Amino acid sequence: MFADFLTRLVRPDPAPLTDLDAQLALTALLVRVAKSDGVYDVAESNQIRRIIAARYQLDSAETEALATRAEALEAEAPDTVRFTRAIKDSVAYDDRLGVIEALWKVVLADGSRDPEEDALLRLAASLLGVTDQDSNAARLRVGKGSPWG
């Protein structure tokens, strides 16, 4: 279903993603982080839908369609390293900071911080070229009021 998209995404020198492809790739990364602890629960799924609806100004049908496509893409996507590199090459640093905030929202959505989620988020931040300090600041911004912030 996503063979052409994934082929373009993992080329040694991928072309910049279109806005729609970037939305799909970023949403799939949110799903990957949510699944990293072996559990993809309703709280995480709902948080992803809230994030993408707000970020991309989507109505409920568009949000559901993007989330469903992203869940399917994530299941077929290659390793996180190549997948995330393509996003880095296509998205400006300030937007990548927004992605890290969104990833932290997903990690914290179920009320727990699992080591697998933390490790994947650290890897994703590094691969996206976001510094540890900026990632930590993003975690603190989204975790206010949470014992995991």
Explain briefly what this protein structure is.
This protein has 149 residues and is mainly alpha-helical.
Outline the structure in words.
The chain is mainly alpha-helical and 149 residues long. It has a single domain (20-142), classed as TerB-like. It has 8 helices and no strands. The chain starts with a helix and ends in a 7-residue tail after the last helix.
Topology at a glance:
Elements: H1 3-9, H2 19-35, H3 42-56, H4 60-76, H5 80-90, H6 93-109, H7 115-127, H8 132-142
Helix pairs in contact: 2-3, 2-4, 2-5, 2-6, 3-4, 3-6, 6-7, 6-8
Features:
149 residues, TerB-like, 72% helix, DjlA_N, 0% strand, mainly alpha, globular, 8 helices
- The assigned CATH architecture is Orthogonal Bundle
Number of helices: 8
Number of strands: 0
Question: Gyration radius, to the nearest Å?
Answer: 14 Å
Overall residue-averaged pLDDT value:
84
Share of residues in strands = under 5%
CATH topology name: TerB-like
Distance between the termini: 38 Å
Helix content: over 70%
* Count of the domains: 1
